[in-house]
Amino acid sequence: MIAIGTSLGGIDTLTELFSYLPVGFPVPIAVVIHRGTTEFDYLIDVLQKSTRIAIVEAHDKLSISPDEIVIAPADYHLLVDKHHYAISIDAPVQFARPSIDVLFESVADQYGAGAVGVILTGGGCDGVYGAGKIKSRGGAVLVQHPSTAQDPGLPQAALDAGMVADNLSIAQIARRLIALSHGEYNMEDDFKCDIDKPLRRSEKSL
Questions:
Q1: Using the 8-state DSSP alphabet, how is residue 96 labeled?
Q2: Range of the domain at 7
Q3: What percent of the chain has pLDDT over 70?
Q4: Angle at 131 between CA 14 and CA 195, to 5 degrees
Q5: What is the mean pLDDT of the chain?
Q6: By CB atoms within 10 Å of each CB, which of 39, 40, 67, 189 scores lowest?
Q7: In whole angstroms, what is the distance from residue 169 CA to residue 188 CA?
Q8: How many CA atoms lie within 13 A of 79 on its CB side?
Q9: Which residues are designated catalytic?
């Protein structure tokens, strides 16, 4: 499972990332973007315009399916088990609900080495602890290059914590996700795909 966390600037960044992922992408994707109860009511509609992969808002007991992107509801934590999503109104974590840490830790617990955490633009440090959990269980962690982020605070916090040795453009993150989804990359090896080669139009969803 791929878990993505973002905050300020996240809508534009997710739109770009999703535009690179092909239809039939075989791994489920769960996303936390920090938002309050009345913010971004248009979020699903805006993101859906970037991809033909189905984008839905999570609800309790929603089945986990490949070729689907699930977004945490406003003011609810998002968690996973092996077959379903769950939502929670537990107290905010790092001042956030939904919290990236909550999602990442849940995905790490359930998927172990099959977990992938992606940290994108945003402020604060919500997501750094959860990324550490994913990494400690053998999963992969990918971080947006701070220089490309609308708010570099969260990506920089992840780098400062030693989550990864490098940081990536959004196109590079997409290419690595595609490689991971096809079993062509693991964290112990050199990349078997050309991560710096621009994605061709035919590789995009649209």
A1: B
A2: 2-203
A3: 86
A4: 55
A5: 89
A6: 189
A7: 21
A8: 13
A9: 7, 34, 126
Angstrom distance (rounded) from CA 79 to CA 70:
11
Q: Which of 92, 59, 58, 61 is nearest to 75 (CA)?
A: 92
Kindly list the distances between the CA atom of residue 84 and the CA atoms of 26, 44, 59, 87, 195, in Å, as whole numbers in the listed order.
Answer: 17, 20, 10, 10, 32
Assigned token pair, 68 = 């689907």
Q: How many domains is the chain partitioned into structurally?
A: 1
DSSP 125: S
Residue that has been written with the tokens 């239809």 in this structure = 23
Q: Is residue 205's pLDDT more than 70?
A: no
Residue 82's Cβ-count burial label (10 Å; 0-12, 13-18, 19+) is: exposed
Cβ(93)–Cβ(118) under 8 Å? no
194 by Cβ neighbours in 10 Å (0-12 / 13-18 / 19+) ranks as: exposed
pLDDT digits (tens, 9 = 90+) for 92-135: 998 999 999 999 999 999 999 999 999 999 999 999 999 999 99
DSSP run (H or E) holding 160: helix 153-160
Q: How confident is the model over 146-165, as a mean pLDDT?
A: 95
